[in-house]
Fold these 2 entries.
Entry 1:
Amino acid sequence: MAELFIELFSEEIPSGMQARAADDLGSLLTKALDGLNPRDLRTFFGARRIAAVLTVDAEIPARSVSERGPREGAPEKALEGFTRKHGVTPTDLTLENGFWVLNKSLDPVSAESRVSEAVPDLLWKFPWPKSMRWGAGSNFTWVRPLRRIACLLDGHVVPFALARDGDDAHGLKASNLSEGHRFLAPGAFEILSASQWQDELETRSVIVDMDSRRDMVRTGVARLADQHGITVVQDDGLVDEVCGLVEYPVPLLGKIDAAFMDLPAEVMQVSMRINQRYFALRNPDGKAAPYFAFVGNLPFKDGGKLTTAGNERVLRARFADARHFWDLDRKTKLADRVPALAAVTFHARLGTQAERAERISKLAGTVAQAMGLDGAQIAQAERAGLLAKADLTTGMVGEFPELQGVMGGYYAAHDGEDEAVSRAVAEHYLPRGQSDETAKAPVSVAVALADRLDLLAGFFAIGELPSGSGDPYALRRAALGIIRTIRDNGLRLDLTELFAQAANGRTGGELAKLPDFIAERLRVQLRSEGERHDVLAATLAGSLDGDLVRLLARTSALSEMIQTEDGRNLLAAAKRAANILRIEDKKDGPHTGAPDPSLYTQDEERALATGLDQAVPAIETALKEERFTDAMQAIAALRPTLDRFFEAVTVNAPEPEVRANRLKLLSRFRETTSLIADFGQIEG
Amino acid sequence: MSATRPLCFQDLILRLHQFWSEKGCAILQPYDTELGAGTLSPHTTLRALGPKPWAAAYVQPCRRPSDGRYGENPNRLQHYYQYQVLLKPTPEDSQQLLLDSYRAIGIDPELHDIRFVEDDWENPTIGAWGLGWEVWCDGMEVSQFTYFQQVGGIPTVMPSTELTYGLERLAMYVQGVENVYDLDFNGHGLSYGDVFLRAEQDYSRHNFELADTQMLLTHFNDAERESLRLAEAGVAQPAYDQCLKASHLFNLLDARGVISVSERASYIGRVRALAKAACDAWLAGEEETSHG
């Protein structure tokens, strides 16, 4: 048993790639050293290094392996090939179960020998998302120049070099050397063990454990905020990014010049986050606080005075730029920007943003009408639809594309548009992602749906569908946005009808596939919520009910029913009936049409027929009135009748007319179940 | 550095010249045609190609017509200076060299927060890309650091280190000035604004209002034709000069707002084709001389 330690020390690794690279290092080592029984894996990553430590056996023990060769009596050539491949003679082979077999015994392999063989290979093939060449001629690539490799087994260097096939790989060799903080502790130190390495790094101002760095950032920023009675805007992504940029995190607080505090909070926050990786802070009333937090890379000699002043100055310049756009943009009304959208191409085959604005406007009105909004709201939806994309021509959105919508909302409000209109301009991009809120205000909802309906109809009309991996126009996200907005707001809309409106007279392309596309997204969504997707498939029964709310209510009623005992038995009976019909229909089917009561020979047949006669109208009425649980109960109530039927009645009676009549009865049962769902889709 | 006045603009340049001269660089003078960035100088673009080592440093005036702000924005200029260093092959201590050069101009990395922040650099107009960083000092990007991987669509057989300093920003930082026009230019009372404000105002009018777009279009087409003809004849640098002219003419047309979004990509593609042809011609000549 030995401790294997590997550190790859390089120039600064992009923050977003570090965690994945450390994971890859761990799993590739585990795989490559399989024979050494690797365990207790821990990985580390930071701005200039990734590392792994694991426990391995001292050796791969001696073992014997059997290689099966050609069959007894196979051509001479085959046997020759096999012996040549293994460097043995036919006398070394034994005959086992009709095959020639070579039993080889393998010598033990030391951990050192296995590691020194496996690691260089692993490093040459390391899966960086993007890597580079450097130096005078080596083709060894790394994410940025690799400067040191440390590789130790119980504190002893595992000797290997990266050089291969005449490529010196920058002369990189395994050593026992590491480096501390770039500025505070330059130069190498010797590694004795993983734990000594971690301690030594800490004395050399490198916190190599990511969780510790996160903790230093979180608590440090929170403490600084607390001193001013303010709170930090939680941003886990930013914490992680910052922790990948610094080896020794030192949180500091800077002030925001009062002259900029009237900028929209979103503008300040985006500028701070995107451009500067600063944390935004909030006053107790939720408004932006006149401070920002940032994280330095070392405990500064002057306590951070100079660097704080520098960061404050940089932010002033950033905000001066933002102020320039904010002031300039407001000089032109949003409505007056709509014509300029004619110069912005949306997609070569789908025209300009101006044409799109027209379409969204019209469609937003249609959706608003379908939602049952009043005349004023319909007009607001049309107005907001027209203005929705106009902020694309503003300087601020040009600078910060992530502020599209938000800025439009501010500018519309500044122009004196109705509150519902400016709100809809701001909110029509909702939801921006999986975890984002959906729009709730009715006019916003109408525009959000219209935007996505137009997007989907447009791209489906020109046949630009997402492929397995690629979805360049984010059509899946758009479909999911529609589904979530409808569900969250309980909207009773006919999507099929709205797709037709969105198609705007266009036909062909892949438009016909749109309902299936929505159905597929719905399935994926339900599955991610832990729902049974097969139950949805059963209620979809091949075609999408354009009213998603109704569809989902029916699905959940069905889902509940099949969890009851009656439901499970009914399901079994339905499957049994379907199986019988499938087999018998193949012989002389189909067996459809009304059964003839005079051909019933057993009470169980009559009982089933009567049961069905009563259930069908009850189910139909319940479905029509959207009392789905009642509909399910009406059919589940048939269970004892069905059980008795299958127990007592032989469907394939010897008399042909009795058999045919019984098959017709089963067929009628199947039709009845299909009023509810396609039970064949349900698993189990 | 003693506690005297911080470096004036021209002394900053002199310090960098001194530093890189001592490191063995050829100190070159600015290239004599309009460029959008120091990278575009043939001293960088062409020299980055092929198998011959190279080390040079120079100041390059850069023109970005659409960044004109009529002299009213404290941070944005349509004409500014970059200090450009190209080291080929990439030295082992590239990062250390850059940090030492900061010390030489008075930036102490133990007082200031120096960071290497990921930057996948690319310049589609010359078909170039590389990996490296934006180098931050107290939250401000003061340099770009790139390991060139491809130029003119051609992989660099001997990768080079490119260091680009934004001189005005750096000087503003060192002098603690918040308006570029207030920079101390020569340490004897001359400000940056004294030298450049009038030009920024006039060029902004030229770039946005006055430039004759019909003439620019004609010049663009002429430069394109000439560049291809010269590349065909194997004279790489003259061909590349015409490519640079076409690139600047495109930037002017863009600032004048006469290029639509869809046309934009096509213009960039045309300039890239010129860059590629000139780079190919350069490389062909290099291989001839290294084998001959």
Note: The radius of gyration of chain A is 35 Å.
Entry 2:
Amino acid sequence: MKFPDPHDVKAKTIPGTEGWERMYPYHYQFVSDDPVRNQYEKDTFWFNDALHYPEALYPFDTIWDEAWYLALSQYNNRIFMVPPVRGVDHRIINGYVYISPVPVKDPDEIGRRVPHFMERAGHYYKNWDELEAKWKIKMEATIRELEALRIPTLPDMESLSVVNDACGESQGYHLLKNYDDLINLGIKCWQYHFEFLNLGYAAYVFFLDFVQKLFPSIPTQRVTQMVSGIDVMMYQPDDELKRLAKLAIELGLDSTFTSSPEWEVVEASLKKNTKRGDEWLAALNKVRQPWFNVSTGTGWFHHDRSWNDQMNIPLSGIATYIGKLQQGVSIERPTEKVRAERDRVTAEYRGLIERDEDRKQFDELLATARTVFPYVENHLFYVEHWFHSVFWNKMREVAAVMKDHGVIEDIEDVWLLRRDEIKQALWDVVTAWATGVTPRGVTVWPKEIGWRKGVMQKFKEWSAPPAIGTAPELIQEPFTIVLWGVTNKSLADWSSVQEVKDLSSIVELKGFAGSAGIVEGRARVCRTVAEVSELQEDEILVAPTTSPSWAPAFAKIKACVTDVGGVMSHAAIVCREYGMPAVVGTGHATKVISSGMMLRVDGSTGVVSIER
Amino acid sequence: MAAVASEGQPLICWLEECRKESVPLVGGKCSSLGELIHAGVRVPPGFALTTAGYRAFMAESGLEREMQFLLQKLDCRDLEALERASASIRAAIEAQPFSEQLEDLVAERYRQLSVRCGIPAAPVAVRSSATAEDLPGASFAGQQDTFLWIRGADEVLHHMRRCISSLYTGRAISYRANRGYSDEQMAISVGVQKMANSYAAGVMFTIHPINGDRSVIVIDSNFGFGESVVSGEVTPDHFAVNKVTLDIIDRTISQKEICYTVDLKNQVSYAMEVPIERRNIQSLTDDEITELAWMGKQIEKHYGRPMDIEWSVDKDLPAGSNIFILQARPETVWAEKKTPRCAPVETSAMDYILAGMLAGRKLS
């Protein structure tokens, strides 16, 4: 299968963005001046990682892409020695990330890697629970280090203690050093992110693969159902909201929570209500760390703020649950029912397996998939939510110093700079501060940032081709298969998706069957979690993607449709837990559907029909 | 009730009284229908004249002796003589009235059946149910007759005799002679069953016919009688249902040009054009698909193997009690093909993961 030549795609520069390459690391560019690299890029298959990056990437946010470029690749290629694959290569065009799994081509080399892989991966699979417990300790220590990291401001005169303690270091030096520490903690956190993930996905992929061999027509959601109902951290933030809602009712404070959508107003009136209000606030403070670090987005981007940053969001969740409780509706997830159904489904499929050997293999792979499942889910809370939410705010502290010294005009401008540019600008600020002169950046960065804002806007309007380069015959990299769903079918869909021009003529969208069932109802398009408050009872939620902080929305809706995500995505998992239909990864539901349209969501076949 | 012959066997019985052990009494077809009812599956109601009833008829009427006389000196290689003998036996059977007792029994059952269906003089199918039909190597398939859309007790009695006489076609006589079965040992049962007045009908497999997936039930459906689906005259609607969860996992709604309906006067079904506005309408509701698949699952469970099933949705009866199974037999294609094992030689999860990684995913 042939896709456009990446260099041709890149050559069609969007007018007004000439020179955009400097917004991203130089090694992310498709090149024309290096014949060998150019040929490699032509012969390689690159697909747009729209799963993680539905929009053009801000220069600073490239940090997590670089972090996983390194971490995923090293674990595959240098640590576990996955026999047929190396890492995953990366490029950027117009702010969109293209990735490509790199195979090991020499059969002898693959053979040589096999015993190492068996020993190394085997060690992890065998000692999974014990190693995972160690991982949690490492990860929590890293987050504590991040939380303790101080971003100093630059005083006109250093404290006397610097002299009396003969400390020998200035705040300027600490600003530079702590910025480096901040970045390094981020990179380290992503080292841990992939310690278990490659193997976790592999176990999951090959359980899926085996079950699909036994039952070629089995919907993927039924395979994931067999590993569902295991307690994962992702539910905890939502569970805390439910507990807080119950406590509010117990304390007779329920009317306070429905009096205003503004947290500040509610908080003030709780404080007035001294004793009971204080009791409730104390309960809240106990759970804000870590649970309210849950991000309102995927956590991958600076604009994904946490509940702690936007208390109106958890407040609206609490108000929803109070309303449900007042109506006498249960707000508990039907966990017992979910587990009973999981066990029934698993046993029935198992009963349909004809051969004893196959049944034994099924049992082994299922057990492994269930062992790895909690990690595959829980790492998201630790890294993308907890760590990232704290990290973005530390970066805002850095930006505040830069703003104070005039190299940027607004804190949120900082994301338009690469992290190495920020380092340079900090050197500029610190040396100018030390010297008592004006930083050069004062005239450089605001102008550059203004131009970059225009470029970002043009990038957002650009439609990135789903795949470029030359498709290989064989894909062996487990992430590429499970996470991005690169298959013959998806490639075919990708080449056809470009052809749709008139969005208002579309009456049917196809996605992944995320959670079974069929319902009809009115659509509510929520582009961000802040819009969830507009949801009415029994509407169908249409969202770019969802994350744990969207959880309260699921108590109101009767189905969910997303642009991005597979059957293991948050929306699919939560809908299965609630027993409502979901169609995920439709590509462009939020563009095609508008609020108020009548939809028919078939979560068993993955089809959304739109009544026009 | 005097419905019992001297040896203690009933002359007539309801289908729900039949079991798989009843083959000598009611033949293969009726016993398998009884077995389905026993499995909790809804089949069109009906009754059977048993082999005891058949023997009583033959003995009381003196036909047995007449037949022996005709067949004794018959040379089966003489085709002309064979056909002559067959014709005269069959004419004799069809002309011979049942005893009053048998007539009363049949008429009473038929009346009760009509009451059960809520239709005066319910249209029925009258078909022979041979005792030897399903024996390996003794296939009589298609050699007995089926009469559809029969109404009224006299008509039912008449067609029962025609079914009985079908045991004496030339081909059947010579077949038995060649195989060494004696004609006196042969017995036939006749089933009388409500005609399914199909709103929609078709076939269902409790295994995926293409890939042998045992977790799938596929249903092909069209409006009217199942003939259009079985014969392949139309592209039917196609549904795939998950056997474990009963979700509809795939559906194709086809353009259905024709369907079969009944001409009650001439007692035949015929093809008619489906009105244009109905052609692209789904021929079964989702609830019906789910209920049908549930029945398929019960049938498979009962027989312990994948099944090939004919079914019908009846327009005379209300939703919830209108889906009928007309026939169920073991699926044969995949039963013989024995699916290949999926697990490689190794069974540890690690080995499987490694093998899978090395194999990769083929893209074309």
Note: Chain A has a mean pLDDT of 90.
